[in-house]
Amino acid sequence: MEIMTDQGFRKTIKYLRALIIISLIGMICMLILFFGVLAYAKLLGAPPLAVPQSTLFFSDNGTLIGESNSGQKRYWVPLDEISPSLVDATISIEDKNFYDHNGFDYKRIAGAMIADIRAFGKVQGASTITQQYARNLFLEHDKTWKRKLSEAFYTIRLEMNYSKKDILEGYLNTIYYGNGAYGVQAASRYYFGKDASKLTLSEASMLAGIPKGPGIYSPLASMKNAKARQSIILQSMVKNGFIQEDTARTAAQKALSIVGVHSNQEVKVAPYFQDAVKNALKNQLHLDDRTIALGGLKVFTTLNIKQQKAAEEQVKKYVSGTSEIETALVAMDPKNGYVKAMIGGRDYAKSPFNRAVQAIRQPGSTIKPILYYAALGEGFTPSTTMRSEFTTFHFDDGTPDYTPHNFNNKYADGEITLAQALAVSDNIFAVKTHLYLGEESLIDTAKKFGISTKMAKVPSLALGTSGVRVIDMAGAYSLFDNGGKKVNPTLITRVEDYNGNVIYENEKTDEQVLDPAKAYVMTQMMTGIFDPKLNGYATVTGSTVAKDITRPYAGKSGSTETDSWMIGFSPQLVTAVWAGYDVGKPIDMPAEKTYAKNIWANFMEEALKDKPVKAFKAPKEGVVGVYVDPTNGKLATADCPVRRFTYFVAGTEPTEYCTDHLMHSDFHPSKQKAGTKVPWYKRIFKWGN
């Protein structure tokens, strides 16, 4: 028996030794694994904290005009812009030892395990704020061991690489509060209609209770459950030393006003403009669709809300509700190309196709100012004359004969000046000029003006038969307005990421692309479409809206069988308006032919209502102004029944006096000098001359 006992004892010792060795090996392996995990976590570095957030769009004065969120409202706010009451309530109920642990609350985990064993089920959670944040950022919410292990690993990475402040800020900005509200800012605005920084203790304690079960504890789902959960949170804050008992009692008894509406959900100003902004973010800034939609960007745009509203009102006022005709408008600051208003169609809900930036339509006679700018560089002046008569053009190179027509087939059947040809929109004068300059000239000049659409080298190009975009034409006319400086149509001034870092800022350009003197002479010629002094065989094309305008404007109308245009400007604003049918249907109804002009004139007046009246500013040198007889372009005399003050590029002004109206024998043209200085008061009031 003693031998057996001794053998048994030796066996026991043997097994015990083996157990100890195995245990030591296991402990060493566990330590190696533990430190290996830590080393691997450190090697991987800080995990990215970016989460989907709403991208916000702002007008030129910082007013919110829209957002992109795919149904999820997310707005990131710094921790110091969150109510301290909400921070304390969240820590108290979710993780009271948050500042004392390294991501795992082992005492709480043990307590939860005991509670679960006693209840034979899952009755108590033990996840810390860091663990919940890791789950929200990187993981699905399924209950598998793989997910739990991944959560633990991400928790370690977060605690190793970020401060407690960063983790708490991130958690509060990503947690789900129900009804599409992610993060405290979106939730605060939704439930209480205020920023998270302004929440009271009563509001904060109710909000902190929602994440446990948004469908159960939201005050919109059940005020009874929400109040019960609020009471639990207030008592936990008392127990954990955040507030006093009487403070908790007062907060629990306070009646709360629940809003239940996302403050920005109805904010959808200028939808065509916002679509154009998103396209610019994608195509010009090369941002991907997800970043644009859910990158938490702040996009500061050029839109002027007042002018956008005026544009929408004028379209609604003048375009018949029974008509199927469409319209587009672009208003632009000529100094920098900032787009201030945009209409891409009559109803975005019915057709999001943006006719202001996507449609390519024939510009008609609105192309003529660009043609005549090129002509000024080839010896033409406002007083250059050519015959306006029914004309068929024949070509030796095999090009088919071409017979352009004036509106209503009316012609001067005599000489007219360039200034008058522009004002009454004479097509014969335009085609003759185009062929004289060479068909490449207009194509090259249009490119200089920023028009990028392809143009055909044909005689009819002078009458606008090659398509253009509305936004490009607004940009082109801006060059006349600003003295010839290059502008690019601009929708965005600055873009910030969700941390407030500027990732894009518009760069201003000061490149001179046109001759300032020629640009000014063309601008002054374009004022002629509103001036009855230039009436001839036809009235000036702006006569139908001249009664509606109260300040100096320059511009040009244009029409084809299927397109109606009006483009014009003041020193402060350029606006291009187009009207027509999407399918290219002819515009037959007389009222529809007036839409573009009426919208343009009344929009300009409304948009500039509070702006000072300004005349176009001449360049310091390079131009000369003289009075001419508008019928022949010669220097006017006292006997001329009509005199119009006209600007010329210096050195090209007329030197011959008009002798068509001589009434006095003592008049000697040689006694008057070309370019006679105009009195100061006539220069100031030359708009009325």
From TrEMBL:
<dbReference type="InterPro" id="IPR001264">
    <property type="entry name" value="Glyco_trans_51"/>
</dbReference>
<keyword id="KW-0961">Cell wall biogenesis/degradation</keyword>
<keyword id="KW-1133">Transmembrane helix</keyword>
<keyword id="KW-1003">Cell membrane</keyword>
<keyword id="KW-0472">Membrane</keyword>
<keyword id="KW-0808">Transferase</keyword>
<keyword id="KW-0378">Hydrolase</keyword>
<keyword id="KW-0645">Protease</keyword>
<keyword id="KW-0511">Multifunctional enzyme</keyword>
<dbReference type="InterPro" id="IPR036950">
    <property type="entry name" value="PBP_transglycosylase"/>
</dbReference>
<feature type="transmembrane region" description="Helical">
    <location>
        <begin position="20"/>
        <end position="41"/>
    </location>
</feature>
<dbReference type="Pfam" id="PF00905">
    <property type="entry name" value="Transpeptidase"/>
</dbReference>
<keyword id="KW-0133">Cell shape</keyword>
<keyword id="KW-0812">Transmembrane</keyword>
<dbReference type="InterPro" id="IPR050396">
    <property type="entry name" value="Glycosyltr_51/Transpeptidase"/>
</dbReference>
<feature type="domain" description="Penicillin-binding protein transpeptidase">
    <location>
        <begin position="328"/>
        <end position="604"/>
    </location>
</feature>
<keyword id="KW-0573">Peptidoglycan synthesis</keyword>
<feature type="domain" description="Glycosyl transferase family 51">
    <location>
        <begin position="62"/>
        <end position="237"/>
    </location>
</feature>
<dbReference type="InterPro" id="IPR012338">
    <property type="entry name" value="Beta-lactam/transpept-like"/>
</dbReference>
<dbReference type="InterPro" id="IPR001460">
    <property type="entry name" value="PCN-bd_Tpept"/>
</dbReference>
<dbReference type="Pfam" id="PF00912">
    <property type="entry name" value="Transgly"/>
</dbReference>
<dbReference type="InterPro" id="IPR023346">
    <property type="entry name" value="Lysozyme-like_dom_sf"/>
</dbReference>
<protein>
    <submittedName>
        <fullName>1A family penicillin-binding protein</fullName>
    </submittedName>
</protein>
<keyword id="KW-0121">Carboxypeptidase</keyword>
<keyword id="KW-0328">Glycosyltransferase</keyword>
